[in-house]
Automatic annotation (TrEMBL):
Natural source organism: Igneacidithiobacillus copahuensis
One of the Pfam families matching this protein, by short name: YdaS_toxin
InterPro entries: Lambda_DNA-bd_dom_sf (IPR010982), YdaS_toxin-like (IPR031856)
Biased composition (Basic and acidic residues): 22-31
Signal sequence region: none
Compositional bias annotation for Pro residues: 45-60
Region described as Disordered: spans on this chain: 22-60
GO molecular function: DNA binding
Name of the protein in question: Helix-turn-helix domain-containing protein
Regions that span the bilayer: none
Length: 60
């Protein structure tokens, strides 16, 4: 996979923004290590049903 100019900080930001669905190791294996699939990559975390935080006074 070509890095396409993705720097280490951007790779970390992408990993955080995708809640781990895209791993920094996949984007920059030359910096962060092996890009082989791990257990977490095989079973990605489920995404929340809503990206909006709960309103004050409402239960989550």
């Amino acid at each position: 996979m070509s890095t396409g100019g993705i720097g280490p900080k951007l790779a970390i930001a992408i990993e955080r923004a995708t809640l781990g669905a895209v791993r920094r190791e996949e984007l920059r294996p030359d910096i962060f290590g092996d890009a082989s699939p791990s257990e977490s990559a095989k079973n990605p975390p489920s995404l929340p049903t809503s990206t909006q935080p709960p309103s004050p006074g409402r239960p989550a």
